[in-house]
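Q: Two folds, back to back.
A: First:
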Amino acid sequence: MRFRRVERCLHRHVRSGELWFVGRQGGKVIWRRLRTHDLHVARTTVAMLESKPNGNTAIFLVVDGNEQPIPEAAPVARSAPLPQVRQVLVPVQSEAAPVKAVPAVQPTPTSPAPPLDEFLNRWRRGKEGLRPATEARLDDCLTMLRRYVDVLRPVTDYRPQDIRDYLAKARADKVKGRRRLKGQTINEAMWRPLHSAFALALEERFIDRNPLDSVEREKTTPIAPSTRGRMQSGCWRM
Protein backbone atom coordinates (compact mmCIF):
# COMPACT_ATOMS: atom_id res chain seq x y z
CA MET A 1 0.00 0.00 0.00
CA ARG A 2 1.62 3.25 -1.15
CA PHE A 3 -0.72 5.72 0.61
CA ARG A 4 -2.02 5.92 4.14
CA ARG A 5 -5.19 7.88 4.96
CA VAL A 6 -4.56 10.71 7.39
CA GLU A 7 -7.99 12.29 7.57
CA ARG A 8 -10.82 13.21 5.27
CA CYS A 9 -9.51 13.93 1.73
CA LEU A 10 -5.88 13.69 2.87
CA HIS A 11 -3.53 10.78 2.24
CA ARG A 12 0.20 10.58 2.94
CA HIS A 13 2.63 8.84 0.64
CA VAL A 14 4.30 6.09 2.60
CA ARG A 15 7.73 6.43 1.01
CA SER A 16 8.10 10.21 0.40
CA GLY A 17 5.84 11.43 3.20
CA GLU A 18 4.10 14.00 0.93
CA LEU A 19 0.44 14.70 1.38
CA TRP A 20 -2.07 14.15 -1.42
CA PHE A 21 -5.65 15.30 -1.88
CA VAL A 22 -8.11 12.51 -2.67
CA GLY A 23 -11.67 13.62 -3.30
CA ARG A 24 -14.57 13.64 -5.64
CA GLN A 25 -15.08 16.59 -7.98
CA GLY A 26 -17.56 16.59 -10.84
CA GLY A 27 -18.53 12.96 -10.15
CA LYS A 28 -14.91 11.75 -10.49
CA VAL A 29 -12.36 10.71 -7.90
CA ILE A 30 -9.23 12.78 -8.37
CA TRP A 31 -5.75 12.60 -6.83
CA ARG A 32 -3.79 15.84 -6.50
CA ARG A 33 -0.29 16.17 -5.18
CA LEU A 34 -0.10 18.95 -2.54
CA ARG A 35 3.76 19.10 -2.46
CA THR A 36 3.94 19.55 1.29
CA HIS A 37 4.60 17.47 4.38
CA ASP A 38 2.91 19.94 6.74
CA LEU A 39 -0.60 18.91 7.72
CA HIS A 40 -1.72 22.52 8.40
CA VAL A 41 -0.60 23.67 4.95
CA ALA A 42 -2.35 20.69 3.39
CA ARG A 43 -5.61 21.49 5.21
CA THR A 44 -5.49 25.06 3.94
CA THR A 45 -4.90 23.86 0.38
CA VAL A 46 -7.74 21.38 0.60
CA ALA A 47 -10.06 24.09 1.90
CA MET A 48 -9.27 26.13 -1.21
CA LEU A 49 -9.84 23.12 -3.48
CA GLU A 50 -13.22 22.41 -1.90
CA SER A 51 -14.49 25.96 -2.42
CA LYS A 52 -17.91 26.15 -4.03
CA PRO A 53 -18.27 27.13 -7.71
CA ASN A 54 -20.03 30.41 -6.80
CA GLY A 55 -16.94 31.64 -4.96
CA ASN A 56 -18.22 30.99 -1.41
CA THR A 57 -16.10 28.79 0.80
CA ALA A 58 -17.46 26.58 3.55
CA ILE A 59 -15.53 27.07 6.79
CA PHE A 60 -15.28 24.24 9.32
CA LEU A 61 -13.97 23.89 12.84
CA VAL A 62 -11.99 20.70 13.47
CA VAL A 63 -12.71 19.50 17.01
CA ASP A 64 -11.07 16.22 18.01
CA GLY A 65 -10.76 15.28 14.36
CA ASN A 66 -14.41 16.04 13.57
CA GLU A 67 -15.41 18.86 11.22
CA GLN A 68 -18.18 21.15 12.45
CA PRO A 69 -19.53 23.75 9.97
CA ILE A 70 -19.90 27.30 11.23
CA PRO A 71 -23.41 28.65 10.53
CA GLU A 72 -23.48 31.90 8.62
CA ALA A 73 -25.18 34.78 10.32
CA ALA A 74 -28.35 35.83 8.55
CA PRO A 75 -28.33 39.43 7.32
CA VAL A 76 -30.36 41.81 9.43
CA ALA A 77 -32.84 43.84 7.42
CA ARG A 78 -32.93 47.52 8.28
CA SER A 79 -36.39 48.60 9.28
CA ALA A 80 -35.74 52.34 9.18
CA PRO A 81 -35.57 54.01 5.75
CA LEU A 82 -32.19 55.00 4.41
CA PRO A 83 -31.26 58.65 4.89
CA GLN A 84 -31.68 60.82 1.85
CA VAL A 85 -28.51 62.02 0.21
CA ARG A 86 -28.47 65.57 -1.07
CA GLN A 87 -26.72 65.93 -4.40
CA VAL A 88 -24.13 68.68 -4.48
CA LEU A 89 -22.70 69.87 -7.78
CA VAL A 90 -19.22 71.31 -7.60
CA PRO A 91 -17.87 73.03 -10.73
CA VAL A 92 -14.60 71.59 -11.93
CA GLN A 93 -11.97 74.19 -12.63
CA SER A 94 -9.81 73.71 -15.68
CA GLU A 95 -6.13 73.31 -15.15
CA ALA A 96 -4.49 76.65 -15.61
CA ALA A 97 -0.93 77.19 -16.68
CA PRO A 98 1.48 77.34 -13.74
CA VAL A 99 2.10 80.88 -12.64
CA LYS A 100 5.71 81.84 -12.23
CA ALA A 101 6.63 82.99 -8.79
CA VAL A 102 7.08 86.74 -8.63
CA PRO A 103 10.17 87.74 -6.66
CA ALA A 104 9.43 89.50 -3.46
CA VAL A 105 9.83 93.25 -3.58
CA GLN A 106 12.68 94.47 -1.46
CA PRO A 107 11.39 96.71 1.33
CA THR A 108 12.59 100.24 0.97
CA PRO A 109 13.91 102.03 4.02
CA THR A 110 11.46 104.49 5.54
CA SER A 111 14.17 106.85 6.79
CA PRO A 112 15.67 109.44 4.39
CA ALA A 113 18.55 108.17 2.31
CA PRO A 114 21.99 109.28 3.55
CA PRO A 115 24.20 111.36 1.27
CA LEU A 116 26.82 109.75 -0.91
CA ASP A 117 29.58 111.26 1.22
CA GLU A 118 28.55 109.11 4.18
CA PHE A 119 29.05 105.91 2.20
CA LEU A 120 32.42 107.17 0.95
CA ASN A 121 33.53 107.77 4.55
CA ARG A 122 32.30 104.35 5.63
CA TRP A 123 34.18 102.73 2.75
CA ARG A 124 37.30 104.63 3.82
CA ARG A 125 36.92 103.48 7.45
CA GLY A 126 36.85 99.90 6.19
CA LYS A 127 40.41 100.40 4.91
CA GLU A 128 41.84 101.26 8.33
CA GLY A 129 44.94 99.32 9.32
CA LEU A 130 46.63 99.35 5.92
CA ARG A 131 50.11 100.73 5.39
CA PRO A 132 50.40 104.46 6.11
CA ALA A 133 51.36 105.20 2.51
CA THR A 134 48.27 103.34 1.24
CA GLU A 135 45.96 105.18 3.63
CA ALA A 136 47.46 108.52 2.60
CA ARG A 137 46.89 107.66 -1.05
CA LEU A 138 43.22 106.79 -0.34
CA ASP A 139 42.75 110.13 1.42
CA ASP A 140 44.22 111.92 -1.60
CA CYS A 141 41.79 110.02 -3.85
CA LEU A 142 38.77 111.14 -1.83
CA THR A 143 40.01 114.73 -1.83
CA MET A 144 40.35 114.60 -5.60
CA LEU A 145 36.93 112.94 -5.99
CA ARG A 146 35.15 115.62 -3.93
CA ARG A 147 36.64 118.28 -6.22
CA TYR A 148 34.57 117.04 -9.18
CA VAL A 149 31.63 115.11 -7.63
CA ASP A 150 28.79 116.58 -5.61
CA VAL A 151 28.81 114.07 -2.75
CA LEU A 152 26.16 115.83 -0.63
CA ARG A 153 23.19 114.58 -2.67
CA PRO A 154 21.18 111.60 -1.34
CA VAL A 155 22.64 108.35 -2.56
CA THR A 156 19.34 107.50 -4.27
CA ASP A 157 19.50 110.55 -6.59
CA TYR A 158 22.48 109.49 -8.72
CA ARG A 159 21.99 108.12 -12.20
CA PRO A 160 24.60 106.65 -14.58
CA GLN A 161 24.59 109.84 -16.67
CA ASP A 162 25.35 111.90 -13.55
CA ILE A 163 28.48 109.84 -13.00
CA ARG A 164 29.49 110.25 -16.63
CA ASP A 165 29.13 114.03 -16.27
CA TYR A 166 31.40 114.03 -13.19
CA LEU A 167 34.03 111.94 -14.98
CA ALA A 168 33.84 114.22 -18.03
CA LYS A 169 34.35 117.23 -15.75
CA ALA A 170 37.52 115.67 -14.36
CA ARG A 171 38.66 114.72 -17.86
CA ALA A 172 38.17 118.26 -19.15
CA ASP A 173 40.12 119.89 -16.30
CA LYS A 174 43.35 121.24 -17.77
CA VAL A 175 46.39 123.07 -16.54
CA LYS A 176 48.35 125.10 -19.11
CA GLY A 177 46.57 123.32 -21.92
CA ARG A 178 47.27 119.82 -20.61
CA ARG A 179 44.93 117.45 -18.82
CA ARG A 180 45.27 117.57 -15.07
CA LEU A 181 44.24 113.92 -14.60
CA LYS A 182 45.08 110.94 -16.78
CA GLY A 183 42.67 108.10 -17.41
CA GLN A 184 44.41 105.80 -14.93
CA THR A 185 44.18 108.43 -12.20
CA ILE A 186 40.45 109.01 -12.84
CA ASN A 187 39.81 105.28 -12.58
CA GLU A 188 41.73 104.91 -9.33
CA ALA A 189 40.67 108.15 -7.64
CA MET A 190 37.03 108.43 -8.78
CA TRP A 191 35.57 105.37 -10.50
CA ARG A 192 36.73 102.79 -7.97
CA PRO A 193 35.74 104.67 -4.75
CA LEU A 194 32.35 105.58 -6.25
CA HIS A 195 31.70 101.99 -7.25
CA SER A 196 32.56 100.76 -3.74
CA ALA A 197 30.37 103.40 -2.08
CA PHE A 198 27.34 102.60 -4.25
CA ALA A 199 27.94 98.86 -3.69
CA LEU A 200 27.65 99.51 0.04
CA ALA A 201 24.39 101.41 -0.50
CA LEU A 202 23.10 98.54 -2.66
CA GLU A 203 23.98 96.03 0.04
CA GLU A 204 21.96 98.00 2.58
CA ARG A 205 19.00 98.26 0.12
CA PHE A 206 19.02 102.02 -0.27
CA ILE A 207 19.33 101.55 -4.03
CA ASP A 208 18.35 98.68 -6.32
CA ARG A 209 21.19 99.05 -8.82
CA ASN A 210 24.74 100.30 -8.83
CA PRO A 211 24.90 103.20 -11.34
CA LEU A 212 28.60 102.49 -11.97
CA ASP A 213 27.65 99.19 -13.65
CA SER A 214 26.61 101.19 -16.74
CA VAL A 215 29.60 103.57 -16.69
CA GLU A 216 32.73 102.53 -18.53
CA ARG A 217 36.16 103.09 -17.11
CA GLU A 218 38.46 105.70 -18.60
CA LYS A 219 40.85 104.68 -21.32
CA THR A 220 44.42 104.52 -20.11
CA THR A 221 47.66 105.17 -21.97
CA PRO A 222 50.79 103.16 -21.22
CA ILE A 223 53.34 105.04 -19.12
CA ALA A 224 56.95 104.95 -20.20
CA PRO A 225 59.21 103.16 -17.69
CA SER A 226 61.50 106.19 -17.36
CA THR A 227 58.65 108.48 -16.24
CA ARG A 228 56.47 105.96 -14.36
CA GLY A 229 57.88 106.71 -10.92
CA ARG A 230 57.80 110.49 -11.40
CA MET A 231 54.16 110.52 -12.55
CA GLN A 232 52.98 108.17 -9.81
CA SER A 233 54.65 110.22 -7.12
CA GLY A 234 53.20 113.51 -8.44
CA CYS A 235 49.64 112.59 -9.41
CA TRP A 236 48.49 111.99 -5.86
CA ARG A 237 49.51 115.46 -4.72
CA MET A 238 47.02 117.20 -7.02
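A: Second:
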Amino acid sequence: MRVISGVLGGVLLLLTLGSILRNVVVPRGIGSVLTKVVWRSVRQVLVHLAYPVDRYERRDRLLAWLAPLVLVFELVAWLLSLFCAYGLLDYAVSDRTMGKAFQEAGSSMFAVLYSNPAPSDLIALDFLAAVTGPLIIALQIAYLPTLYDSYNRRENQVTLLESRASDPAWGPELIARQALIGTVDQLKDLYQTWERLAADIGESHSNYPVLLAFRSPRPYRSWIIALLSVMDAAAMQLALSPTNAPAAEARLMLRSAFTALRDIARTLHFPFDPDPVPDAPLDLSFEDFAEAVDHVRRAGFMVERSAEEAWPHFRGWRVNYEPIAYWLAHKLDAVPAPWSGDRDWPSVPMKPIRPEDRRPEASPQS
Protein backbone atom coordinates (compact mmCIF):
# COMPACT_ATOMS: atom_id res chain seq x y z
CA MET A 1 0.00 0.00 0.00
CA ARG A 2 2.81 2.42 0.84
CA VAL A 3 4.59 1.58 -2.42
CA ILE A 4 1.42 2.31 -4.39
CA SER A 5 0.98 5.58 -2.48
CA GLY A 6 4.55 6.55 -3.28
CA VAL A 7 4.11 5.87 -6.99
CA LEU A 8 0.80 7.75 -7.12
CA GLY A 9 2.23 10.66 -5.14
CA GLY A 10 5.29 10.91 -7.37
CA VAL A 11 3.25 10.81 -10.57
CA LEU A 12 0.79 13.38 -9.22
CA LEU A 13 3.64 15.65 -8.15
CA LEU A 14 5.29 15.51 -11.57
CA LEU A 15 2.01 16.10 -13.41
CA THR A 16 1.15 19.08 -11.23
CA LEU A 17 4.57 20.69 -11.53
CA GLY A 18 4.43 20.10 -15.27
CA SER A 19 1.03 21.81 -15.45
CA ILE A 20 2.36 24.81 -13.52
CA LEU A 21 5.42 25.14 -15.73
CA ARG A 22 3.39 24.77 -18.92
CA ASN A 23 0.89 27.45 -17.93
CA VAL A 24 2.89 30.02 -15.97
CA VAL A 25 6.59 29.66 -16.72
CA VAL A 26 7.01 28.43 -20.31
CA PRO A 27 5.69 31.10 -22.74
CA ARG A 28 4.64 28.70 -25.47
CA GLY A 29 0.90 28.34 -24.94
CA ILE A 30 1.34 24.63 -24.24
CA GLY A 31 -1.52 24.47 -21.75
CA SER A 32 -2.49 21.43 -19.73
CA VAL A 33 -5.39 19.06 -19.17
CA LEU A 34 -6.07 20.62 -15.76
CA THR A 35 -6.49 24.11 -17.24
CA LYS A 36 -8.79 22.84 -19.97
CA VAL A 37 -10.96 21.01 -17.45
CA VAL A 38 -11.18 24.07 -15.18
CA TRP A 39 -11.98 26.37 -18.13
CA ARG A 40 -14.68 24.12 -19.57
CA SER A 41 -16.27 23.43 -16.20
CA VAL A 42 -16.44 27.08 -15.15
CA ARG A 43 -17.68 28.19 -18.57
CA GLN A 44 -20.44 25.58 -18.65
CA VAL A 45 -21.68 26.70 -15.24
CA LEU A 46 -21.65 30.38 -16.21
CA VAL A 47 -23.31 29.77 -19.58
CA HIS A 48 -25.98 27.68 -17.84
CA LEU A 49 -26.62 30.52 -15.38
CA ALA A 50 -26.63 33.14 -18.15
CA TYR A 51 -28.85 31.22 -20.57
CA PRO A 52 -32.23 32.25 -19.07
CA VAL A 53 -31.16 35.89 -18.60
CA ASP A 54 -32.98 38.15 -21.06
CA ARG A 55 -30.89 41.31 -20.99
CA TYR A 56 -27.48 40.98 -22.60
CA GLU A 57 -25.90 43.41 -20.12
CA ARG A 58 -26.73 41.07 -17.21
CA ARG A 59 -25.56 38.05 -19.18
CA ASP A 60 -22.26 39.76 -19.93
CA ARG A 61 -21.87 40.61 -16.24
CA LEU A 62 -22.14 36.92 -15.38
CA LEU A 63 -19.80 35.76 -18.13
CA ALA A 64 -17.17 38.33 -17.07
CA TRP A 65 -16.41 36.09 -14.09
CA LEU A 66 -14.94 33.36 -16.32
CA ALA A 67 -11.33 34.54 -16.43
CA PRO A 68 -11.01 35.45 -12.71
CA LEU A 69 -12.61 32.16 -11.65
CA VAL A 70 -10.35 30.17 -13.97
CA LEU A 71 -7.28 31.79 -12.40
CA VAL A 72 -8.53 31.20 -8.85
CA PHE A 73 -9.68 27.61 -9.38
CA GLU A 74 -6.50 26.85 -11.29
CA LEU A 75 -4.42 27.95 -8.29
CA VAL A 76 -6.67 26.04 -5.88
CA ALA A 77 -6.45 22.92 -8.04
CA TRP A 78 -2.65 23.11 -8.14
CA LEU A 79 -2.39 23.55 -4.38
CA LEU A 80 -4.81 20.71 -3.65
CA SER A 81 -3.02 18.47 -6.12
CA LEU A 82 0.34 19.22 -4.50
CA PHE A 83 -1.18 18.66 -1.07
CA CYS A 84 -2.41 15.23 -2.13
CA ALA A 85 0.91 14.40 -3.76
CA TYR A 86 2.96 15.29 -0.67
CA GLY A 87 0.48 13.52 1.61
CA LEU A 88 0.84 10.31 -0.38
CA LEU A 89 4.63 10.64 -0.44
CA ASP A 90 4.77 11.29 3.32
CA TYR A 91 2.69 8.19 3.90
CA ALA A 92 4.94 6.14 1.59
CA VAL A 93 8.28 7.01 3.24
CA SER A 94 7.20 7.00 6.90
CA ASP A 95 5.39 4.76 9.34
CA ARG A 96 2.64 7.32 9.97
CA THR A 97 -1.02 6.75 9.32
CA MET A 98 -2.62 8.30 6.23
CA GLY A 99 -4.25 11.04 8.31
CA LYS A 100 -1.00 11.97 10.05
CA ALA A 101 0.83 11.96 6.71
CA PHE A 102 -1.61 14.44 5.20
CA GLN A 103 -1.46 16.55 8.36
CA GLU A 104 2.31 16.67 7.95
CA ALA A 105 1.99 17.66 4.29
CA GLY A 106 -0.48 20.43 5.09
CA SER A 107 1.69 21.73 7.91
CA SER A 108 4.69 21.92 5.59
CA MET A 109 2.91 23.49 2.64
CA PHE A 110 0.70 26.04 4.32
CA ALA A 111 2.24 26.48 7.80
CA VAL A 112 -1.25 26.61 9.30
CA LEU A 113 -1.53 23.15 10.84
CA TYR A 114 0.33 21.90 13.89
CA SER A 115 2.31 18.74 13.41
CA ASN A 116 4.72 16.85 15.64
CA PRO A 117 8.39 17.18 14.74
CA ALA A 118 9.03 15.14 11.61
CA PRO A 119 11.29 12.13 11.71
CA SER A 120 14.60 12.48 9.91
CA ASP A 121 13.38 10.58 6.84
CA LEU A 122 10.72 13.28 6.22
CA ILE A 123 12.85 16.40 6.63
CA ALA A 124 13.84 16.68 2.95
CA LEU A 125 10.29 16.04 1.76
CA ASP A 126 8.88 18.59 4.23
CA PHE A 127 11.37 21.22 3.12
CA LEU A 128 10.37 20.60 -0.51
CA ALA A 129 6.70 20.95 0.37
CA ALA A 130 7.37 24.10 2.41
CA VAL A 131 9.09 25.71 -0.58
CA THR A 132 6.57 24.58 -3.20
CA GLY A 133 3.39 26.06 -1.69
CA PRO A 134 4.53 29.72 -1.39
CA LEU A 135 6.43 29.44 -4.67
CA ILE A 136 3.30 28.46 -6.60
CA ILE A 137 1.33 31.34 -5.07
CA ALA A 138 4.17 33.77 -5.86
CA LEU A 139 4.33 32.56 -9.47
CA GLN A 140 0.60 33.07 -9.90
CA ILE A 141 0.81 36.59 -8.43
CA ALA A 142 3.79 37.46 -10.65
CA TYR A 143 1.83 36.08 -13.62
CA LEU A 144 -0.97 38.65 -13.24
CA PRO A 145 0.95 41.83 -14.28
CA THR A 146 1.89 40.16 -17.58
CA LEU A 147 -1.74 39.30 -18.23
CA TYR A 148 -3.10 42.74 -17.37
CA ASP A 149 -0.42 44.53 -19.37
CA SER A 150 -1.45 42.61 -22.49
CA TYR A 151 -5.11 43.10 -21.62
CA ASN A 152 -4.71 46.88 -21.32
CA ARG A 153 -2.88 47.17 -24.66
CA ARG A 154 -5.67 45.23 -26.33
CA GLU A 155 -8.57 47.05 -24.73
CA ASN A 156 -7.08 50.47 -25.42
CA GLN A 157 -7.41 49.90 -29.17
CA VAL A 158 -10.81 48.20 -28.83
CA THR A 159 -12.08 51.28 -26.99
CA LEU A 160 -10.63 53.65 -29.58
CA LEU A 161 -12.44 51.71 -32.30
CA GLU A 162 -15.82 52.52 -30.70
CA SER A 163 -15.84 56.07 -32.08
CA ARG A 164 -15.20 54.73 -35.58
CA ALA A 165 -17.36 51.59 -35.67
CA SER A 166 -19.84 51.84 -32.76
CA ASP A 167 -20.62 49.03 -30.29
CA PRO A 168 -20.77 46.24 -31.26
CA ALA A 169 -18.22 46.80 -34.02
CA TRP A 170 -19.13 45.85 -37.59
CA GLY A 171 -16.92 46.13 -40.67
CA PRO A 172 -19.43 47.79 -43.04
CA GLU A 173 -20.37 50.33 -40.36
CA LEU A 174 -16.68 51.17 -39.90
CA ILE A 175 -16.42 52.03 -43.60
CA ALA A 176 -19.79 53.84 -43.63
CA ARG A 177 -18.88 56.12 -40.73
CA GLN A 178 -15.60 57.13 -42.30
CA ALA A 179 -17.46 57.92 -45.52
CA LEU A 180 -20.04 60.00 -43.66
CA ILE A 181 -17.46 62.25 -42.01
CA GLY A 182 -14.97 62.24 -44.89
CA THR A 183 -12.16 60.33 -43.17
CA VAL A 184 -11.89 57.26 -45.40
CA ASP A 185 -8.22 58.11 -45.94
CA GLN A 186 -7.66 57.62 -42.18
CA LEU A 187 -8.35 53.91 -42.56
CA LYS A 188 -4.74 53.54 -43.71
CA ASP A 189 -3.47 54.50 -40.24
CA LEU A 190 -6.10 52.28 -38.61
CA TYR A 191 -4.93 49.26 -40.59
CA GLN A 192 -1.32 49.93 -39.60
CA THR A 193 -2.30 50.13 -35.91
CA TRP A 194 -4.32 46.93 -36.04
CA GLU A 195 -1.59 45.10 -37.93
CA ARG A 196 0.66 45.60 -34.91
CA LEU A 197 -2.15 44.90 -32.44
CA ALA A 198 -3.04 41.65 -34.24
CA ALA A 199 0.58 40.51 -33.94
CA ASP A 200 0.53 41.41 -30.24
CA ILE A 201 -2.72 39.49 -29.70
CA GLY A 202 -1.43 36.48 -31.59
CA GLU A 203 1.73 36.35 -29.49
CA SER A 204 0.24 37.08 -26.05
CA HIS A 205 -3.05 35.19 -26.37
CA SER A 206 -1.46 32.05 -27.77
CA ASN A 207 1.24 32.08 -25.08
CA TYR A 208 -1.22 32.83 -22.26
CA PRO A 209 -4.61 31.50 -23.43
CA VAL A 210 -6.44 32.65 -20.30
CA LEU A 211 -6.28 36.16 -21.82
CA LEU A 212 -8.90 35.01 -24.30
CA ALA A 213 -11.45 34.79 -21.50
CA PHE A 214 -10.93 38.35 -20.23
CA ARG A 215 -13.92 40.33 -21.47
CA SER A 216 -13.97 44.03 -22.29
CA PRO A 217 -15.11 46.47 -19.56
CA ARG A 218 -18.20 47.40 -21.61
CA PRO A 219 -20.77 44.73 -22.47
CA TYR A 220 -21.02 45.51 -26.20
CA ARG A 221 -17.27 45.48 -26.81
CA SER A 222 -15.19 42.42 -27.61
CA TRP A 223 -11.67 42.08 -28.91
CA ILE A 224 -12.57 39.28 -31.33
CA ILE A 225 -15.55 41.24 -32.70
CA ALA A 226 -13.40 44.37 -33.04
CA LEU A 227 -10.66 42.46 -34.86
CA LEU A 228 -13.21 40.78 -37.12
CA SER A 229 -14.77 44.15 -37.98
CA VAL A 230 -11.44 45.70 -38.97
CA MET A 231 -10.62 42.65 -41.10
CA ASP A 232 -14.03 42.80 -42.81
CA ALA A 233 -13.61 46.53 -43.45
CA ALA A 234 -10.21 45.98 -45.06
CA ALA A 235 -11.50 43.08 -47.16
CA MET A 236 -14.56 45.09 -48.27
CA GLN A 237 -12.48 48.13 -49.18
CA LEU A 238 -10.06 46.03 -51.23
CA ALA A 239 -12.98 44.27 -52.95
CA LEU A 240 -15.15 47.33 -53.64
CA SER A 241 -12.57 50.03 -54.31
CA PRO A 242 -9.26 48.43 -55.28
CA THR A 243 -7.85 51.59 -56.87
CA ASN A 244 -8.45 53.94 -53.94
CA ALA A 245 -7.95 51.47 -51.08
CA PRO A 246 -4.67 51.58 -49.10
CA ALA A 247 -3.82 48.18 -50.54
CA ALA A 248 -0.46 47.60 -48.85
CA GLU A 249 -1.70 48.50 -45.36
CA ALA A 250 -4.97 46.58 -45.74
CA ARG A 251 -3.27 43.45 -47.05
CA LEU A 252 -0.59 43.49 -44.34
CA MET A 253 -3.22 43.95 -41.63
CA LEU A 254 -5.31 41.06 -42.98
CA ARG A 255 -2.28 38.81 -43.17
CA SER A 256 -1.15 39.72 -39.66
CA ALA A 257 -4.67 39.25 -38.26
CA PHE A 258 -5.51 35.86 -39.73
CA THR A 259 -2.00 34.64 -38.86
CA ALA A 260 -2.68 35.67 -35.24
CA LEU A 261 -6.02 33.84 -35.28
CA ARG A 262 -4.32 30.73 -36.62
CA ASP A 263 -1.69 30.86 -33.87
CA ILE A 264 -4.49 30.96 -31.29
CA ALA A 265 -6.34 28.14 -33.06
CA ARG A 266 -3.23 25.95 -32.97
CA THR A 267 -2.83 26.59 -29.25
CA LEU A 268 -6.46 25.60 -28.61
CA HIS A 269 -6.27 22.66 -31.05
CA PHE A 270 -8.98 23.98 -33.38
CA PRO A 271 -8.61 22.43 -36.85
CA PHE A 272 -8.53 24.81 -39.81
CA ASP A 273 -7.51 24.83 -43.44
CA PRO A 274 -4.13 26.64 -43.66
CA ASP A 275 -4.52 27.27 -47.39
CA PRO A 276 -8.22 27.53 -48.32
CA VAL A 277 -9.21 28.03 -51.94
CA PRO A 278 -10.51 31.55 -52.68
CA ASP A 279 -13.93 30.33 -53.77
CA ALA A 280 -14.53 28.16 -50.69
CA PRO A 281 -18.03 28.54 -49.21
CA LEU A 282 -18.71 31.01 -46.42
CA ASP A 283 -21.27 31.08 -43.62
CA LEU A 284 -21.86 34.70 -44.59
CA SER A 285 -24.30 34.84 -47.52
CA PHE A 286 -24.02 36.95 -50.63
CA GLU A 287 -27.35 38.57 -49.76
CA ASP A 288 -25.91 39.86 -46.47
CA PHE A 289 -22.86 41.13 -48.29
CA ALA A 290 -25.00 42.89 -50.91
CA GLU A 291 -26.99 44.63 -48.16
CA ALA A 292 -23.74 45.78 -46.59
CA VAL A 293 -22.57 47.17 -49.93
CA ASP A 294 -25.78 49.19 -50.16
CA HIS A 295 -25.19 50.32 -46.57
CA VAL A 296 -21.74 51.78 -47.31
CA ARG A 297 -22.86 53.22 -50.66
CA ARG A 298 -25.71 55.13 -49.01
CA ALA A 299 -23.19 56.58 -46.57
CA GLY A 300 -21.23 58.06 -49.48
CA PHE A 301 -18.47 55.48 -49.91
CA MET A 302 -17.27 55.46 -53.52
CA VAL A 303 -17.41 51.94 -54.97
CA GLU A 304 -15.71 50.82 -58.17
CA ARG A 305 -17.31 47.39 -58.33
CA SER A 306 -20.85 46.15 -57.91
CA ALA A 307 -21.69 43.70 -55.12
CA GLU A 308 -21.63 40.84 -57.66
CA GLU A 309 -18.19 41.84 -58.94
CA ALA A 310 -16.75 42.43 -55.47
CA TRP A 311 -18.11 39.27 -53.84
CA PRO A 312 -15.44 36.82 -55.17
CA HIS A 313 -12.66 39.15 -54.00
CA PHE A 314 -14.21 39.66 -50.57
CA ARG A 315 -14.85 35.92 -50.18
CA GLY A 316 -11.24 35.21 -51.18
CA TRP A 317 -10.09 37.17 -48.16
CA ARG A 318 -12.74 36.02 -45.68
CA VAL A 319 -12.17 32.29 -46.19
CA ASN A 320 -8.83 32.80 -44.43
CA TYR A 321 -10.32 33.92 -41.14
CA GLU A 322 -14.09 33.35 -40.95
CA PRO A 323 -14.06 29.79 -39.49
CA ILE A 324 -11.62 30.65 -36.70
CA ALA A 325 -13.24 34.02 -35.93
CA TYR A 326 -16.71 32.45 -35.71
CA TRP A 327 -15.43 29.64 -33.51
CA LEU A 328 -13.66 32.05 -31.14
CA ALA A 329 -16.69 34.34 -30.95
CA HIS A 330 -18.78 31.30 -29.98
CA LYS A 331 -16.23 29.89 -27.53
CA LEU A 332 -15.71 33.27 -25.84
CA ASP A 333 -19.45 34.09 -25.77
CA ALA A 334 -18.76 37.42 -27.46
CA VAL A 335 -21.46 40.00 -28.06
CA PRO A 336 -23.64 38.73 -30.96
CA ALA A 337 -22.59 41.31 -33.53
CA PRO A 338 -23.48 41.03 -37.24
CA TRP A 339 -21.31 38.70 -39.29
CA SER A 340 -19.94 36.88 -36.21
CA GLY A 341 -21.80 33.55 -36.10
CA ASP A 342 -24.04 31.91 -33.50
CA ARG A 343 -23.85 31.71 -29.70
CA ASP A 344 -24.82 29.15 -27.06
CA TRP A 345 -28.01 31.08 -26.28
CA PRO A 346 -30.81 32.35 -28.55
CA SER A 347 -29.48 35.58 -29.99
CA VAL A 348 -30.18 38.06 -32.77
CA PRO A 349 -27.25 40.01 -34.22
CA MET A 350 -27.12 43.43 -32.60
CA LYS A 351 -26.90 46.15 -35.21
CA PRO A 352 -24.58 49.03 -34.30
CA ILE A 353 -26.44 52.19 -33.35
CA ARG A 354 -25.31 55.28 -35.19
CA PRO A 355 -25.74 58.55 -33.24
CA GLU A 356 -28.04 61.13 -34.76
CA ASP A 357 -26.50 64.06 -36.57
CA ARG A 358 -27.84 66.79 -34.28
CA ARG A 359 -26.60 70.34 -34.63
CA PRO A 360 -27.34 73.50 -32.63
CA GLU A 361 -29.91 75.87 -34.03
CA ALA A 362 -28.66 79.18 -35.32
CA SER A 363 -28.98 81.83 -32.64
CA PRO A 364 -31.12 84.85 -33.58
CA GLN A 365 -29.15 87.98 -34.36
CA SER A 366 -29.66 90.82 -31.98
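Q: And?
A: The chain has a mean pLDDT of 87.
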